[in-house]
Design brief:
115 residues; alpha+beta; five-stranded antiparallel β-sheet; globular
């Protein structure tokens, strides 16, 4: 009887382990970019420890109909950052390497995903 109880407990524990998702991985560090604010002046914004493998549409430039894209990204995270010209990680893209990746004011972006 004890053996059967132990087997049921072990099977239940294994099922629970398989069913519970692992913790999400975040890119450690800061990703920053510049955008034009409502006053027409350049503003800096940053994402700290962003989630990996999740598309992030930059809130300041999410609507192509009412804002210019962001520019001059700086990737100071430990993951590669792929920036996209459109929201929802669509359009043309460019990948910035970890820690030292950057783009000039000519590199336009509206969304980013970290590897």
């Amino acid at each position: 009887m004890r053996l059967r109880s132990a087997a049921v407990a072990a099977a239940s524990a294994l099922t629970l382990l398989v069913a519970v998702p692992g913790s999400a991985h975040a890119a450690n560090g800061t990703f920053s970019y510049t955008y034009i604010g409502l006053d027409g002046q350049p503003q800096r914004a940053a994402l700290s420890d962003p989630e990996s493998a999740e598309c992030i549409t930059l809130p300041e430039v999410a609507d192509p109909g009412s804002s210019a894209p962001a520019f001059s990204p700086r990737n100071r995270t430990d993951s590669s950052a792929t920036v996209f010209t459109e929201p929802d990680c669509e359009g043309d893209y460019f990948t910035l390497r970890p820690y030292t990746g950057y783009g000039s004011e000519r590199l336009k972006l509206r969304s980013v995903v970290f590897s």
